[in-house]
Specification:
Elements lengths: L4 H4 L2 E4 L15 H6 L1 H7 L3 E4 L3 E2 L11 E5 L5 H14 L3 E6 L9 H6 L13 E3 L18 E4 L4 E4 L14 H17 L3 E4 L20 H9 L5 H11 L7 E5 L8 H5 L8 E3 L21 H15 L6 E2 L9 H4 L7 H14 L3 E5 L20 H12 L4 H11 L36 H5 L5 H14 L2 H4 L1 E4 L7 E7 L4 E7 L5 E2 L8 E6 L9 E2 L4 E6 L2
Helix pairs in contact: 12-16, 13-14
């Protein structure tokens, strides 16, 4: 296994719109990020992934790009970006940008030209299909509700959009499209950008026969069996690597909806020279019900543990894993996988322990380091996310029980992760002097950075401790992994070891006191725990995390 800086590093993810507003307009911006670089550096991380900051109409908050070489003036423009990159590099922080190459905005000039007709050279930059206004080419569903096909009455054609109708899919079959994307990558790498997270990269190769999906098929089924892992996906990624990525000392992570244990290694096998890491969603879709995200089910804990073990086994000695529990597209981790009420501190720290002790590169989403929670707005009018709004409208059309559906919205909406960062207990949580673009979580006076910085036992300081521990112990980065009790219904316990050291990690995912096997740790010392008092007992407290190290 090759050792790389990005394997040994830790990523901090920023959703810029919600991170810090410097201009006083209620929207986070690049100068706000610059203002907080020393804070980010103090965590011990060495990479920052910033969600899209390009010019965009913001139908999907920046994931609909209208100019790939221009930074949105709303965020500060290209000048602010240049300052940010310089200030980050001065602090030995590497910048990972977001590449959205499956689709553009419908306001991108490529698409504006594409709409002019078949004779226009840009027409084939997108997927256009003949049809009639009342009969789409097939029954595929958009990720954000409704059909993937949008009718253009001027052309008497449909265009394909896997997400909103303002996000038409790019046609990677056209070599000119691929060269456009490669030129964009070179543009940013030449500026000094250190890597890219590649949005829904598993979708870029399409099935050109556009087959009908099985009648009654769920969206998740379509994503896995039709949209993702298309026939030319690995050809494209190898080409991208050869023509661009291999020429720079950078890192790539591909977002892989529809990527599973059968297909995951193909993306990151070091011999294949495609991507460095992939985001799979086996653990993040674990509570999706038969009707998808907004039909949440109880989490199967045994299945949850097995996901991590399976992926570690799959990638061992061949590829590298990405370790994350949440991001801008999912609910807050402590609300979803922990207990955000009586054991918020303990369970947030436990989840941090999981992140920092598995094999792979950890990703920390803004606010998780202080245990930010789901927001639970009182009505649908407070929500902004296009996925949430569209799902709500569809539920009304389908005559769902709207009271029950709203409970699902409160639990699963992406807006849970997009409320403003809670910096202090002042108005608007110190995020902005103006009314924020989306309402701040009401618990900001209790949960904020300022309170936790001065509290040695805080979630924030525990993150710092764990990050330091990981960086000082290569065993926790490259060491082997084994689940010690895969059938235990409350404890996730595993071993990390190499020729240098041996660690055993215990995580009690329950509100109960649980006994552990004393014989397993008789020759071990306690390195750290998320409880502040010393542990000599063989009983794990509710949501207790412990890290033991073999005594030499």
């Amino acid at each position: 296994m090759n050792r790389k800086w990005w394997k040994e590093g830790i990523v901090y993810q920023i959703y810029p719109r919600s991170f810090k507003d410097s201009s006083g307009n209620g929207i986070g911006d690049i100068y706000g990020i610059i203002e907080k670089l020393d804070y980010i550096k103090s965590l011990g991380v060495n990479m920052i992934w910033i969600c899209p900051i390009y010019s965009s109409p913001n139908d999907d908050n920046g994931y609909d790009i209208s100019d790939y070489r221009k930074i949105s003036e709303e965020f500060g423009g290209n000048k602010a970006f240049d300052i940010l990159l310089n200030e980050m590099h001065k602090r030995d922080l590497k910048l990972i940008m977001d590449l959205v190459a499956n689709h553009s905005s419908d306001e991108h000039w490529w698409f504006e030209e594409s709409k002019k007709g078949e004779d226009n050279p840009y027409h084939t930059y997108y997927f256009w299909k003949k049809g009639t206004a009342d009969k789409p080419p097939n029954n595929w569903l958009s990720v954000f509700s409704g059909s993937v096909w949008e009718w253009d009455p001027n052309l008497n054609k449909y265009y394909l959009h896997s997400f909103t109708k303002k996000q038409p899919d790019l046609n990677w079959e056209n070599p000119k499209v691929r060269e456009e994307i490669y030129d964009i990558l070179n543009f940013w790498f030449s500026k000094g950008v250190d890597g890219f997270r590649m949005d829904v990269i598993s979708f870029i190769s399409k099935r050109l026969d556009f087959p009908q999906a099985k009648k009654g098929a769920a969206l998740s089924e379509m994503m896995e069996n039709i949209y993702a892992n298309g026939p030319r996906i690995h050809e494209y990624l190898k080409e991208m690597n050869k023509k661009v990525l291999s020429k720079y000392d950078i890192v790539t992570v591909g977002e892989g909806p529809g990527v599973n244990l059968k297909t995951g290694l193909n993306y990151v096998d070091e011999k294949e020279k495609e991507l460095n890491m992939v985001f799979h969603f086996d653990h993040l879709q674990i509570d999706f019900g038969p009707e998808g995200k907004f039909d949440p089910q109880p989490i199967d804990f045994l299945k949850f543990k097995k996901v991590f073990s399976n992926w570690d086994s799959l990638l061992r000695n061949k590829g590298w894993n990405s370790i994350f529990l949440g991001n801008h597209d999912f609910s807050r981790i402590v609300s979803r996988f922990g207990n955000d009420q009586e054991y918020r501190y303990e369970s947030a720290k436990l989840l941090a322990t999981l992140l920092m002790t598995l094999r792979g590169t950890p990703y920390v989403y803004q606010g998780d380091e202080i245990g930010m929670t789901n927001v639970k707005y009182p009505s649908i009018e407070y929500y902004d996310d296009v996925e949430t709004i569209n799902a709500w409208k569809e539920a009304i059309d389908n005559k769902k029980n709207m009271e029950k559906f709203f409970e699902a919205i409160q639990k699963q909406s992406r807006d849970n992760a997009r409320t403003p960062m809670q910096w202090d207990n002042k108005k608007n949580a110190g995020f902005s002097k103006a009314e924020p673009w989306i309402k701040v979580n009401d618990n900001y006076k209790k949960i904020n950075v300022k309170n936790q910085e001065k509290d040695l036992g805080s979630i924030l300081n525990y993150y710092k401790l764990l990050i330091k521990l990981r960086k000082e112990n290569s065993t926790l980065i490259y060491g082997k992994y084994k689940d010690l009790e895969p059938m235990h219904t409350k404890i996730f316990s595993y071993k990390r070891w190499d020729k240098n050291d041996v660690f055993i990690i215990y995580l009690n995912f329950s509100n109960c006191l649980v006994k552990i096997n004393s014989s397993e740790i008789k020759d071990y010392k306690l390195v750290t725990s998320n409880y502040t008092f010393a542990k000599k007992s063989y009983n794990l407290n509710p949501w207790e995390a412990r890290i033991y190290k073999l005594i030499k």
